[in-house]
Amino acid sequence: MYAQMVKSDGPSDAELSPEERAFQARIDAGEKIEPKEWMPEGYRKTLIRQIGQHAHSEIVGQLPEGNWITRAPTLERKAILLAKVQDEAGHGLYLYSAAETLGVSRDELFEKLHSGKMKYSSIFNYPTLSWADMGAIGWLVDGAAIMNQVPLQRTSYGPYARAMVRICKEESFHQRQGYSIMMKMARGTEAQREMAQDALNRFWYPSLMMFGPSDKDSVHSAQSMAWKIKMNTNDELRQKFVDETVPQAEYLGLTVPDPDLSWNEDRGHYDFTQPDWDEFFEVLRGNGPCNEERLGARVKAWDDGAWFRDGLNAYADKAAARRLAAKTAAE
Ligand code: FAQ
């Protein structure tokens, strides 16, 4: 039903080849597609785009929080934040591995990220200005990530679906740690409560943007949903996020920065103000507050690590040559 409400970019059934029709029948029957099996080129490319973008988001997503590890207010908070940021690195690595099963190398993916040809989530182009932002990121950003990723556990590509199971478990811990920071701040001193409110004010709309453009502007949704690469439309998940998050803000005693937010009895959902989509597309074009800084940090890390990668490769080459020499001598 939702696939009909979004822009269509896929071929009609009559235009499918016999192989494509058989492939679609497997998807419709809920079968998982595994790496070595036949798949349409568009399916493979869409997965590389989405999984690659997702992996890049996890890796770039370490930067805004990594920035606060040395400034966490207690040893316990530091240990928790460190573990969370390390989890994000792990998520990136599972996802790069899942993308590699589609025939793309990790080096190619990195090259595309570093040259700006591949995207990462818009949210990581916003600055983290106070400790309360660590709470808002865990609560809202990981909360939005979970909302999007829980359905992806049922996505049609086996390696992606399986990566999502573990990632979602860890994201739940992340969301709870963020909410725990927000509770502490919201119930602390007046200054702490103000910091928590300010963090909510700044992260609310960028979090809503994480779900992607509105359905009418979503280029890929129709085809991705037909292939079960995406399980829900962008607007559907955004609405679910608002419905679940508003009561959590109320429990904290904080105000969602949307004067038009109201419960709509007839729809059984909150009505809310859409994010500024011009701002969203500007961030995607590289003009957000921190795009340059984030990409610059990743490129620098890649360049600084060149000697280490070279060393590993030289060691692997030497070990392979030794193995070959030993084998030849034994024959
Ligand atoms: N940011 O046609 P659609 C995390 C692009 S995980 C940047 O609707 P699609 C964990 C889109 O690529 C966060 N670009 O696209 C964490 C396309 O451009 P293209 C990442 C965006 O793919 C937490 C164009 O707009 N999660 O954060 C965004 O069907 C805390 C048209 O859009 C995932 O990647 C955006 N927000 O739907 C880490 C989940 N939205 O490629 C550290 C998997 C759209 O043609 C700390 N991905 N675009 O040049 C998805 O579910 C989908 O890819 C969507 C976008 C829903 C993100």
From TrEMBL:
Source superkingdom: Bacteria
GO cellular component assignments: cytosol
InterPro entries linked: Aromatic_CoA_ox/epox, Ferritin-like, Ferritin-like_SF, PaaA, PaaA_PaaC
GO biological process: phenylacetate catabolic process
Example of a GO MF term: phenylacetyl-CoA 1,2-epoxidase activity
Annotated NCBIfam families: PA_CoA_Oxy1 (TIGR02156)
Protein name in the entry: Ring-1,2-phenylacetyl-CoA epoxidase subunit PaaA
Organism per entry: Roseivivax halotolerans
